[in-house]
Amino acid sequence: MSASRADPLRASLAASKDGRKRSIHITAIHADGAAVIVGTSNGVLLRYTVADALDSVQGPDAALALYPEKRRSTRAVRQLSVLAESQMVLVLCHGLVSVHEVDALTQLCVLNTPETKAEAFCVNIEAETPRALLSVAAHSSMLFYRISNPITLFREIALPSITPTQMTWQGEAVAVVHAQGVAVVDAADGHIISEQSFATNAKFISVFQNQRWMPLKGYGAHLLPTDLCGAWSDEDGRRLRSLDEIPLPDGASSW
Q: Could you tell me which InterPro entries the record lists for this protein (predicted)?
């Protein structure tokens, strides 16, 4: 890993071996206080500072490449969460949840191993010490951590037979979104409190509207002819003209 600012930025703009520019886009973003952390499709973290004046646009204060550029395939940042009071950032990339220092993005530790493979995580800041919850594929379990110094694992419970895509933790209840619906899980013992299924043949997709900062106008759908991503793109960065380009699930009539 490299904490250098220049190298990750150069990697983000580099051309592929066949001479074509790679489509690099934002895959995760979160802000807390003045810090805005951005994760990209090629595994780069960027830190920005919220300016007092809306018309002052500045580049990133720090950058970090999570994986060496020499690898054949890059890994997108899937999820991140900024904890400004703790001066930490939690990042999910390639099945690993790593903890970084906010200002320089220096890695402090990794909460799991490649064998356990994290699928999603969430944080809870209700207590005096922030807590984090990881859903890991190995043994279908949930790992609970206190985000303190040092970071400690304080609970591990079995997860029902679901594969989470998103999680939210409030009190002792964890809302888990998965392919078939939403389950509310007891954070103390892992039993399902309630469950709601999606409609038959439902499919979850993510579509992004790409925007640009324009002086006096702010952010909006202002595109240039050279923009590779277009006005809309899917989670893999492929350009979309409309939702009609995304195949419907079997038996469905419309999005």
A: CNH_dom (IPR001180), Vam6/VPS39/TRAP1 (IPR032914)
Positive or negative CA dihedral for 192, 198, 201, 202?
Answer: negative
Could you write out the three-class secondary structure of 241-255? Answer: CCHHHCCCCCCCCCC
Given a contact cutoff of 8 angstroms between Cβ atoms, the answer to whether 196 and 189 are in contact is no
- Residues 76-91 as b/e (b if ≥16 CB within 10 A, e otherwise) read bbbbbbbbeebebbbb
Q: pTM for the full model?
A: 0.72
CB 78 within 8 A of CB 93: yes
The pLDDT tens digits of the residues spanning 117-171 come to: 999 999 999 988 999 999 998 778 999 999 998 999 999 998 877 888 899 999 9
Q: Phi/psi at 12 (nearest 5 deg)?
A: -65, -30
Alpha carbon distance 107, 171 (integer Å): 29
Question: Which pairing describes strands 62-65 and 141-146: parallel, antiparallel, or unpaired?
Answer: unpaired
Note the Cα 204 to chain centre separation in Å.
16
Collapsed DSSP state (helix, strand, coil) of residue 167: strand
Closest CA to 237 of 208, 205, 212, 203: 208
**What's the token pair of residue 184?**
């509310």
Closest CA to 79 of 34, 125, 39: 39
